[in-house]
Amino acid sequence: MTEKHDILTLDDVKLLVDTFYTRVRADELLGPVFDERIQDRWPIHLDIMYRFWQTVLLGELTYQGAPGQKHITLPVGAEHFERWLLIFFTTIDELFEGEKAAEAKWRAEKMADMFASKIEYYKKNQHRAIL
Length: 131
Ligand code: HEM
What we know:
The protein is mostly helical.
């Protein structure tokens, strides 16, 4: 078995993203939520996610977007975010080790918390008119 190393190249990012989303799609809780929204646009979604993590972890600025907006209307709650993080952390720990690997987990957890609270807020307030 080859030794684990850190996430250092675009190929490493692609391995992480491909492995993670293969597992997400096979997961009985998360798979249907993703497939319902993404439909036949998986190649595009994966390409966006390569660029997102390339930007965050490698400092190569290939992603521009507003991910919060894409999540706000998803039919998900705390259990979905817990599952997402469990699969993400397990995938990282199996494939990589090092500073960037730790940063990826830290960043994902922060974003999960942010998305989860935005979604809760949206659910509670969607009956109100947006001024
Ligand atoms: C319950 C957990 C989650 C679900 C179900 C989910 C689902 C989705 C879906 C369906 C899309 C595609 C949206 C579209 O193209 O219309 C998307 C995009 C994205 N997600 Fe998530 N997501 C989750 C958690 C996270 C977390 C924790 C992160 C943090 C790294 C994240 C980062 C992103 C990014 C960067 C995009 C691309 C947004 C863009 O198009 O610019 N997601 N997500």
